[in-house]
Design goal:
alpha/beta; 209 residues; 8% strand; HET; 4-stranded parallel beta sheet; single chain; Heterokaryon incompatibility domain-containing protein
C-alpha cells in the first residue's frame, strides 16, 4: 500500500515538473524567432518590442501558473531547417494535446472584454488556431492586456459554459466536441467546412491546418 501511494505521488510530482504550456496566438509580423532567442540566450534578454513583450508575458503567465516549461511556435522551432520544420508541423497536434495547458492570447480584444469579442477576434480566423483550440485538454483565454477573457476565473476555460457556448456557436461544433475533442469526432466534410472558414498566410500554415 505504501509503495503504491509513493509511486502515485512520484508520478504526480514528475508530471507536474515536466508539464509544459503551449502558446496559441496570431503571428503579427517580426515575431522573435529561434535564432533571436538563441543569440540572446534567453527571452528576457531580447530587446524591447511589442512582440518580444508578448512572448515574455506568455512566459510570465506560465511561471505564475506554476509551470517551468513554455513553448511558442515563433521561437521554439528552427524554421531554417526543413526537416525540423516539417517534423514540427506534423507533431503540432500531439504537442498541444499533451500540454499541461494552452494559453490563448487574443490580439485586438480590448480590456475589459465583452461577450462576442472572442467570436469576432482575429484569432478565430486563422488556420492553425483551430487545432490549438480543439487539441488541448486545458485552455485559458486572455485579452490584449493578459487579463482573463470576460474575467472568467475558471481553472479550465473549457469548463466555462459561457465561453464554450460562444465558441460552439461560432464554429458550429457541439460544445462537447470542443471540450473532449478527438480527430475521429468529425467527418471529412465537417473538417473541410471548418478549414474553409480559416485563413492561412504561408504554405506551411496550410499544412499546419
Amino acid at each position: 500500500m505504501t509503495k503504491q501511494v509513493d509511486n502515485e505521488r512520484i508520478l504526480r510530482l514528475v508530471t507536474r515538473f515536466f508539464g509544459y504550456v503551449m502558446f496559441s496566438h496570431v503571428w503579427q509580423g517580426n515575431e522573435p524567432l529561434f535564432q533571436d532567442v538563441n543569440v540572446e540566450k534567453s527571452v528576457w534578454n531580447l530587446p524591447y518590442t511589442f512582440l518580444n513583450e508578448k512572448l515574455r508575458n506568455f512566459c510570465k503567465e506560465t511561471r505564475r501558473l506554476g509551470y517551468k516549461w513554455a513553448w511558442s511556435d515563433t521561437c521554439c522551432i528552427d524554421k531554417s531547417t526543413n526537416s525540423i520544420l516539417n517534423q514540427s508541423l506534423t507533431s503540432m497536434y500531439t504537442w498541444y494535446a499533451n500540454s499541461a495547458a494552452t494559453l490563448v492570447f487574443l490580439t485586438g480584444v480590448a480590456h475589459p472584454s465583452k461577450p462576442g469579442d472572442l467570436r469576432r477576434s482575429l484569432w478565430m480566423t486563422r488556420a492553425w488556431t483551430l487545432q490549438e483550440l480543439l487539441a488541448p485538454k486545458l485552455v485559458l483565454f486572455y485579452d490584449s492586456e493578459w487579463k482573463p477573457y470576460l474575467g472568467d476565473a475558471t481553472a479550465n476555460r473549457k469548463e466555462s459554459s459561457e465561453i464554450m457556448r460562444e465558441l460552439a456557436d461560432a464554429i458550429r461544433v457541439p460544445r462537447g466536441t470542443i471540450v473532449t475533442f478527438s480527430p475521429d469526432d468529425l467527418g471529412v466534410r465537417e473538417k473541410l467546412r471548418l478549414a474553409s472558414t480559416r485563413n492561412a498566410m504561408i504554405e506551411e500554415d496550410v499544412a499546419y491546418s
